[in-house]
Amino acid sequence: MSCISVQVSRIENSSALAFEATFPHRISKKKSGASWEVQLPVWRPGRYERGDFAQFILKMVGIDVNGKEIKLEKCDLHRWTVPCDISKISWAFQADILNAGSTYVSDDLQYVNPVNCFLYDPEKVDLGYEISLKGIPANWDIATALPQSNMTLHARDMQHVMDSPWMASPNLYHERFEEGGVDFHVWAYGETPPQQQKFIEDHQSFCKAQISSFGDFPTPHYHFLYLLPQEMNARHGVEHEDSTVIALGPTAKIHTQNGYDELIGIASHELYHAWNVKRIRPSEWTPYNFADTSPSQLGYVAEGVTTYMGDLFLYEAGCIDLKGWCSKMEALLLRPLNNPGRHNMSVAESSYDTWLDGYRSGVQGRKGSIYVEGAVLAFLVDTRIKTLTGGDSSLSTAMTILWERFGKPRIGITADAYWDVLAEVGGQRLDDLRVNYADGTSDTWNALTEAMLTKGLELTKSTQEKGIIKATITEIKLT
């Protein structure tokens, strides 16, 4: 046996999952007399903060050759010491949180993000995983990007399994389409997607636009996994290597036009992550170090560029019109205009500090958002490059170069590498944008209004009730 064998099952009459894993490489080393260790991830990709998943562990034991359970002692908050004669480990995980990055089990759903709940041997990260789903009825659907056969999932190594969620349930909604030689799957649990025909057509359109921009797609298949339970109140998406999980609710929201727009907006954003972040990745995350925090100042590239590009491709693919794009930009600008933290801490510094206070608002006015301020910076970069090149090149051109040079060979990028490629594409340095708006805290408003004018748009702001500042974008009518 050349892989870690894992059995997954629901603990009867509970909201917990039971795991039993055999680590084959340790069997031959029992006589060495040396103990070994297993690690549970500290964080998960797509959420640049500590997840501390060990808080959901209910039990952690080793199983000896006689089947006797032996309690494992911790050597770290997320690591356990295993005696030399133990190769089989059993543990239980509380799984009652339902969002796009969690693990959850109920009577009609097994939804697992392995990065929440799978152990790995930090000394043997190249071993594959063979995952047997026990207790799931044979007629249930299984939605995942992992190869599967006879209720068994297969992952090539630790990095692969940690980035490959699955959901199993009776009667999952499932549609598929082909675009650019890629086999796309759309799955949904709970509600069926709204405006189903248009929903799939819009997916085809933005997938086609993004693949055309980059020239190819990283994998031969991709899975959109939607969590749409009736009572869930959520708006959340998480990117994975060959898939994404998107949660939105409740039902009343899903079936409004705003709910529909949010769903395809998140989907376009997450698909762009298949290139940017899953492959074009900061050096601090190459590869992912799940045993410790991994702060990076490049959140404005990872999430800011993705936020901007996700919406831009909806427009370029015809999924939304210019008015729709303006509405999305207005909604985005609402946050920085009303957050003084953008003047206190740069977006690069705010990216690094997500690992301190996560995605909470934290101390008022302390920091900004890598998504919002990063998207504003991406818009300014895109506009500058288009202006310098007469529209011949853009931020998309630069991202394609980054994909070829860094993403495909899995080489981590640095801030210098990113800005060097922008300069190469634009024909001159964009250091003022970097100094003022990436590493600095200068106000972007004047730069934004000037950039909008180059697109025939006027940007204004006004103060609403309770002092809320609102941005308005209108098309300039030529007379």
Structure explained in plain terms:
With about 475 residues, the chain is an alpha+beta fold. It folds into three domains: about 5-125, Immunoglobulin-like (Sandwich); about 175-270, Neutral Protease, domain 2 (Orthogonal Bundle); about 285-475, Neutral Protease Domain 2 (Neutral Protease, domain 2). It is about 30% helix and about 25% strand. The protein has helices spanning about 115, 160, 195-215, 250-255, 255-270, 300-315, 320-335, 345-350, 355, 370-390, 395-405, 415-425, 430-440, 445-455; strands spanning about 5-10, 15-20, 35-40, 55-65, 70, 75, 80, 90-95, 105, 110, 130-135, 140-145, 150, 150-155, 165-170, 175-180, 180-190, 220-230, 235-240, 245-250, 455-465, 470-475. The strands form five sheets. It has an eight-stranded mixed β-sheet. It is globular, with a radius of gyration of 23 Å. It starts with a strand and ends with a strand. The mean pLDDT is about 95.
